[in-house]
Specification:
By secondary structure, the protein is mainly alpha-helical. It is built from 16 helices and no strands. The chain has one domain: Ribonucleotide Reductase, subunit A (Orthogonal Bundle). α9 packs antiparallel against α10 (about 255-285).
């Protein structure tokens, strides 16, 4: 009975007409119906329509700094989104969280120089396969060749560590600070190229890969889990200063043109990473002054790792052979090694000052003091023996003390 009543009701033509809603048809200028268009309401979802980025003058191109205009140049102190939301884009509720990206505060990763360092890195691209005059890297005596292969092995090892460390951190840094992630992507490539370039140098004349680095500082970099800032401190402020010193000396005193050119190419890559480190630490401290204490404490621990590596004689003896042009002239070469070690510490002090860490007094009066006073670390003297040498120097400089 119910089915019959329903059929009767729906058969009423008046009811049918009232239930039918004719869609409004769009017509062209001749009155012909136009095809239905998709819903394009999404096209209005932009925070700042009409904001136009212009290339830099004088041939600089369309840089990262040039597109940081309007709301797109507004870099927040905190980014709440834990997904791939590009800064300045309209959030979509269904995007949800994909995990990671737990470093969401600006002070934890930012450096004002990041976009400029990125632009410099990509503009100074080079390839170890074709930009190094490898044909000039032959003809050394066996002892010098073995020594340069040893140094190349250690530098290649350090480049490998940097590549792994930065790559591991990238997934934790918020993509909202994309300038930092862009620059760090070039840092990964630069570190890999250093690893590659010095591996090629070790293999060039048959010496091959030599002894591994002692690894205490490698471990400090790899295990700096506390924060990205700690990693930056250990890897690019402390060890980066040593790496810069070694590569700078090789760019001048390398035994062949190939060695000097390789070091010359690698040096700016190292210095860009150090520049980011100084800028980032300075920015972090400006936002959280209490970080000065914790960062200095972290560096004190990391310096013990670096000092432990210093007590291994292999690297210093290899450099002394290179600088002295042979085993027979290692004593003269060791004098230049002392200069290199002093240059490392002065560079490290300078970078700490740039980062507003205020660490100079601790470095000059602590375990590094012997080097700064002219006592090289060769790996053969005990700490007590080095203290005795320092005491002798102090007595000579001030006999009335």
């Amino acid at each position: 009975m119910a089915r019959a009543k329903k059929a009767k009701a729906t058969s009423n033509p008046e009811v049918r007409q009232s239930e039918i809603v004719e869609p409004t048809k769009q017509l062209d200028y001749e009155g012909n119906p136009l095809p239905d268009l998709p819903d394009l309401s999404w096209m209005g979802n932009t925070f700042q329509w009409g904001t136009k980025a212009l290339p830099e003058r004088h041939g600089g191109g369309l840089t990262l700094a040039a597109v940081n205009i309007g709301i797109y140049g507004d870099i927040p102190e905190h980014i709440p989104h834990r997904n791939r939301l590009p800064r300045g884009a309209v959030p979509v509720a269904t995007a949800g969280s994909i995990g990671g990206y737990y470093i969401q505060d600006k002070y934890e990763q930012w450096a004002d120089s990041s976009p400029y360092l990125y632009e410099e890195a990509i503009s100074r691209r080079w390839a170890s396969a074709t930009d190094i005059p490898w044909d000039t890297g032959h003809g050394l005596s066996d002892d010098v060749e073995i020594a340069i292969a040893q140094v190349a092995t250690e530098l290649s090892n350090w480049g490998s560590v940097e590549t792994e460390v930065v790559s591991a951190w990238l997934q934790n840094l918020s993509p909202g600070y994309h300038e930092v992630k862009y620059f760090l992507s070039t840092a990964v490539y630069d570190s890999s190229r250093m690893e590659e370039g010095y591996r090629k140098r070790a293999m060039l004349n048959g010496a091959g890969m030599m002894l591994e680095s002692p690894g205490r500082m490698n471990r400090a970099c790899l295990e700096s889990y506390g924060s990205w800032s700690n990693t930056v401190l250990f890897m690019w402020l402390l060890r980066g200063s040593l790496m810069q010193a070694i590569v700078r000396y090789l760019s001048v005193y390398g035994p062949t043109e190939a060695d000097r050119e390789l070091a010359f190419r690698v040096l700016p890559d190292i210095m860009r990473k150090s520049a980011y480190a100084c800028d980032h630490i300075r920015f972090a401290i400006s936002k959280r002054s209490e970080l000065t204490t914790t960062m200095n404490a972290g560096l004190t621990v990391a310096e013990f790792s670096q000092l432990s590596d210093f007590n291994d004689p292999v690297l210093w003896e290899a450099l002394a052979i290179i600088f002295g042009d042979g085993v027979e002239n290692m004593d003269q070469g060791m004098e230049m090694v002392l200069e290199l070690q002093q240059y490392f510490l002065e560079t490290y002090i300078d970078k700490c000052n740039q980062a507003n860490l205020g660490r100079e007094a601790q470095i000059r009066s602590g375990a590094w003091r012997g080097i700064l006073m002219g006592v090289p670390m060769t790996g053969h003297a005990t700490p007590d023996e080095m203290r005795e040498q320092v005491a002798i120097i102090m007595q000579k400089n001030n006999p009335f003390a």
